[in-house]
Design brief:
about 25% strand, about 475 residues, GMP Synthetase, Chain A, domain 3
């Protein structure tokens, strides 16, 4: 079966299959435009794409996949050093860019690569054989705690398996209209948000900048967002109420605060579906459309996916909903390794082939997963206790004067680490918040220090960059 099965085989030539902002393409026109790009790329193995939230990106990615090339999305906000690293490390042979786009001669701009224009005026009726399932479809660059970003190799089979699993979990059908405003260089926005409807069927409306009123006006049945987006929608009651006509709201890429979950439930009538995944694993765990949704929990493994939690020595921990350990994942959605980094690839896997996510989780007796956070930043060892940063953050966010909160463990000469909170709030004081948390949680989990800040550092998907807090 073709990776983009619905686009390739559907006889329904929908006039509005894909909409990006106010630009619309039918299925047949998208096929023709993408085939023209594929014709230009014939014989190339790896192609970089300027991954702006535009129709040219959609056409370019689809065209490269039809040609059998591995797609290397380049974030539009990448600085010169990161951009140069991605283009050189991936060994991309060409750069797809909108027709007429200027590529200057600055370092890392892509001037050393032939630029293949994505021209939305040029179609082709040519044919291209379907590449083998094991062929690399995407090389997505992901940053760790040290060193330059690493390129994760994702096969066509892994992507297809992930999307089919989500179709099962979310009852995703060709009748759905997917609405989102996510970046197109990550798993969430590109794999789920673009390749998903082109494989499963249904229409896509990318709203451009993800403003609440744009989500409300789009009339989607299936809506994707990250916590930052959902928080803004929850704070815009009129827009939120318009989403009552949707079938499913899905949140990912970071933990959704309970207050936002509850606020959306009251305004939209929907309990948000949360799910979990990484660049290296794609989506592996999710709540289901036909099952319960629990704030702060991300559901059960998708079909074919296996998970376990282990302690620092690699010993299995019980699925009792309390034991916290590193989450390991195995299954058909895993990546094929890091490009040019056998050392990093070896370090990311156990001897028996499980992928080490680096995330700390608990698993309940019923298989429901709760992500505590990153092992490196969110599992705090203070005075002999193991404290999950997420639990303390949720307690802080329950205070009416707290808008945002991030908790980390800073070095402490006696405790090893001290629980330290960074808070964006209105009219609150540090001692007040310390006492507030101590009244909700065990006393040892209270912040030893609260630092009031104007904003928390976040990446493009709204995740708090805790390493920047730890580095001071």
């Amino acid at each position: 079966m073709s990776l983009l099965a619905a686009m390739s085989s559907s006889m329904d030539d929908r006039p509005d299959l894909v909409r990006v902002d106010d630009r619309v393409l039918s299925r047949s026109r998208l096929q023709g435009l993408a085939t023209a790009v594929a014709d230009d790329l014939r014989g190339l193995d790896r192609v970089a794409v300027e991954a702006t939230p535009t129709m040219e990106t959609v056409v370019g990615v689809v065209g490269a996949l039809r040609a059998g090339a591995a797609v290397v999305p380049v974030p539009p906000d990448a600085g010169p050093r990161e951009r140069e690293h991605i283009l050189r490390d991936s060994a991309a042979q060409a750069l797809l860019a909108p027709v007429g786009a200027a590529v200057d001669g600055s370092p890392g701009s892509g001037a050393g690569l032939p630029v293949v224009p994505v021209d939305l005026r040029r179609e082709s009726a040519g044919t291209h054989p379907e590449p083998a399932p094991e062929r690399t479809a995407l090389i997505l660059y992901t940053s760790g705690t040290t060193g330059a970003p690493k390129g994760a190799l994702l096969s066509r089979a892994a992507i297809a398996t992930c999307l089919d699993g989500l179709a099962d979990a979310w009852a995703w059908t060709p009748d759905d209209l997917l609405v989102h405003g996510l970046p197109l260089f990550h798993v969430h926005g590109l794999v789920l948000g673009v390749l998903g409807p082109l494989r499963i069927g249904g229409r896509l409306h990318h709203v451009g900048r993800p403003r609440p009123e744009r989500y409300a006006a789009a009339g989607g049945t299936l809506c994707f967002g990250v916590p930052t987006i959902w928080g803004r929608i929850a704070a815009a009651p009129a827009a939120a109420r318009a989403l009552r006509r949707a079938r499913l709201l899905v949140s990912g890429s970071a933990a959704l605060p309970t207050a936002v979950f509850d606020g959306l439930a009251g305004l939209t009538g929907h309990r948000v579906v949360e799910r979990y995944g990484m660049t290296e694993t794609l989506i592996t765990v999710s709540a289901r459309a036909d099952g319960p949704r629990r704030p702060g929990a991300v559901g059960v493994p998708l079909p074919g996916v296996r998970t376990r939690i282990v302690d620092e020595q690699g010993h299995d921990l019980p699925s009792d909903g309390t034991a916290m350990g590193e989450l390991l994942v195995a299954g058909p959605t895993l990546f094929d390794g890091y490009l040019n980094r056998p050392d990093a690839d070896a370090a990311s896997r156990t001897a028996d082939g499980w992928f080490r996510t680096g995330d700390v989780a608990t698993v309940g007796p019923d298989g429901w997963h709760r992500i505590v956070g990153r092992a490196s930043t969110d599992l705090i060892k203070s005075g002999g206790y193991r404290i999950g940063a997420g639990e303390v953050e949720e307690a802080l966010l329950a205070h009416p004067g707290v808008r945002e909160a991030a908790v980390v463990g800073l070095p402490h000469p006696d405790l090893g680490q001290q629980v330290t909170a960074y808070v964006v709030g209105d009219g609150v004081t540090g001692p007040e918040l310390v006492d507030f948390v101590a009244r909700q949680l065990s006393v040892h989990k209270r912040p030893r220090e609260v630092r009031l800040v104007d904003a928390l550092p976040r990446n493009a998907l709204g995740k708090v960059q805790k390493k920047r807090l730890l580095d001071g």
